[in-house]
Design brief:
Length: 155
């Protein structure tokens, strides 16, 4: 799915940047393996630890306290911050609960991910739950994000 997404980006002469928390660089890594990586991938930043979100990306602590580091609201803020760090056509931010130890609840179980895509001055929000071991969750998340990118570009 990554190659299909990267090929579409290349054919449309679009570039992409990532801000990754739970995926810890996995999305950028997958795009870097594509034969189209040199045409589409600008870069990425991993903000796995909350202190990176606060101290490097200047995400307000109050936002994290109000909604948790693994939330749609924080993910929206991350995608906004990406625009000041990178110059690309699409920006993708991702947070979530890859494994136990985060802000999991009954309504937000382990495997819950939030991701946002910013494209042509539009913010697109997504939430999904991925099952299985961490590696399987990451593969599933990558596929979902690539499909969403394709859908967003085609709209």
């Amino acid at each position: 799915m990554t190659n299909k997404c990267a090929e579409l980006l290349a054919n449309k002469e679009l570039t992409i940047s990532f801000i990754e928390s739970a995926s810890a660089g996995y999305l950028s890594h997958r795009f870097s393996l594509s034969p189209y990586s040199g045409e589409v991938l600008v870069g990425g930043l991993v903000c796995y630890d909350v202190k990176v979100k606060e101290n490097v990306l200047n995400v307000p602590n109050q936002l994290i306290e109000d909604y948790t580091a693994e939330s749609l609201e924080v993910t929206q803020e991350l995608v906004r911050k990406a625009q000041s760090l990178f110059k690309s056509d699409l920006y993708v931010a991702c947070t979530g609960l890859l494994k136990r130890g985060g802000s999991e609840t009954k309504d937000k179980p382990v495997g819950t991910f939030f991701y946002c895509i910013f494209y042509k001055d539009q913010l697109y929000d997504f939430q999904c739950v991925c099952k299985g071991a961490p590696q399987k969750k990451l593969r599933s998340l990558n596929s979902k994000i690539c499909k969403s990118i394709i859908d967003v570009i085609r709209t």
